[in-house]
Amino acid sequence: MMKEQVVCKTTDIQPGEMMESFFGKQNVLICRTPDGEFYAFMNQCNHQGAPLDKGMMCGATTEHSKPGEYHYCHKGEILRCPWHGREFDIKNEGRMLANPDKKLPSFKVRVEGVEVIIYK
Question: Which of the chain's ends, N or C, has fewer CB atoms near its CB within 10 Å?
């Protein structure tokens, strides 16, 4: 049986921002990347359980970065954990940058009108 739920309105989250919501009793994180797409993950880091909505959406540093001189890519598409700085690629199924075999549990998302709906 497919379960789905409206978790927010499109106007609740501007591109490049995120917010927590609930899917049933599960605490979920809704992210809106700068291109306006929506993504949903469990709102819990798979390392030590930090609430990811307290982290930030940022970019990934590139291989051209040096100490004190950082270059970024994927701006606004990387989710950084507030506790230990683990980074997850929002557009690549929530995979951890340092270890792509690990990823955040995610949900499917669709938008109908102004409603953001997530489902399993």
Answer: N
Sequential DSSP letters for 33-69: -TTS-EEEEESS-TTT---GGGSEEEEEEPTT-BTTB
d(CA 59, CA 61): 7
- Which phi and psi (to 5°) does residue 3 adopt? -110, 135
Residue 35 burial (CB < 10 Å; 0-12/13-18/19+)? exposed
HSE-CB at 111 with a 13 A cutoff on CA atoms is: 15
* Burial status of residue 78 (CB atoms within 10 A of its CB: 0-12, 13-18, 19 or more): buried
pLDDT digits (tens, 9 = 90+) for 1-43: 569 999 999 999 999 999 999 999 999 999 999 999 999 999 9
pLDDT in tens, 76-86: 999 999 999 99
Q: Please tell me whether residue 61 adopts helix, strand or coil conformation.
A: strand
